[in-house]
Amino acid sequence: MIIRxxxxxECAAVIAQARVARLxxxxxxxxxxxxxxxxxxxPFFYSFTMPGQKIEWMRQNPKVCMLIEQYSAGREWRSVVAxxxxxxxxxxxxxxxxxxxxxSMLGKQASWWEPGGLKPVPGPSANAAEHLFYRIEVESxxxxxxxxxx
Length: 150
Fold this sequence. Notes:
Blueprint (H helix, E strand, L loop, with lengths): L1 E4 L2 H10 L2 E8 L2 E8 L1 E3 L2 E6 L3 H8 L2 E9 L5 E13 L6 H11 L17 H5 L3 E16 L3
Antiparallel strand pairs: 1-8, 2-3, 2-6, 4-5, 5-8, 6-7, 7-8
């Protein structure tokens, strides 16, 4: 097996084929990693969620990264790590165009609102909570790929 760096267009191809990524956030030297559904239109990842830990942490520290992985037959894989900055798309005057764009990008996928629109515990807070759209502006990305040497 050979491991090699991927170029920017190869990284973009991996992102274009994926719908789920791992979002890494941190607060007070504590990392937190969660899966998220996303849509991508360079230079932004768009996503949707309910209020909770990841939003609270990103509001305090907007520096985040996304991991997108792709596995093939045998031992081959490709992975991309994108570093960026969180930006909430609030339901307020001045943000309508950005929110509508996020909604239209995400809406191209079936069940785009899952798991962001669901909470594990039913109750008033889960039912009454307002949904949130956000985006991650990509500042840099790297990618690696394994190639079976046989």
